[in-house]
Amino acid sequence: MLLAKTLTSSTFKLALIAIGTFGVIASAIFSYVYLSTSSYVRSRSDRAIMTEYLSLQGAYERSGRDGLIALIQQHIADKSFADNVYILVDPSLVALGGNLKAWPSTVKTTRGWTEFRASEPLPNTTNRPLLRAMLGTFPSGDRLLVGMDIGDLDSFTDQMKLAVYFHRQVAWLQDRFPRAEFQAVPGLLCAPLPERVSVQDAARGTVPS
Prior knowledge:
This protein has 209 residues and is of the alpha+beta class. It has a domain at 48-154: PAS domain (Beta-Lactamase, 2-Layer Sandwich). It is built from four helices and five strands; from the N terminus they run ααβββββαα. The protein has helices at residues 2-7, 10-77, 151-176, 199-203; strands at residues 84-89, 95-98, 112-117, 130-137, 143-149. It has a five-stranded antiparallel beta sheet. α2 (10-77) packs antiparallel against α3 (151-176). The radius of gyration is 29 Å and the shape is elongated. The two termini are 17 Å apart.
């Protein structure tokens, strides 16, 4: 009976209302933080990727394929480019240089921006990170991909999805219990039964109101 009194008390109702209100506010904050943060991270990574792509494109125009391959290898060896990924392929998609072993199978376009998950863990990583990249095709048919690991944004997105999940559970509680009162939900929980009613009667639906 103590449980029944607790669940029907005004304190419990106010607690449910407070939880629901907090969930709505938290959801709005999470959404704002996610949108602003993801936009900032993408714009920052896009600028870095484009700067690197233009640098390599210039090397190709000045020194041809061999000069580009040499510059890519220099950047791969430089720790300041540790988050960058590269691959240069010929018109038949045979890899000529870079730290990706093959042209990503999920990337069908030949130029512009794309995002894809690495086919295998990159050096110094244990998972397959999400990559954002700029693509281009040279007059010879060679293709260049310059990208960056945006796995931090991927992890942040997973955390936001978890927060949204919990908010949806709170929203369900508010929708199912709009008056913040304990009540039976078929298959989930049962309201406290009067002492005079047996469990068998309750199962047959003969519980008096």
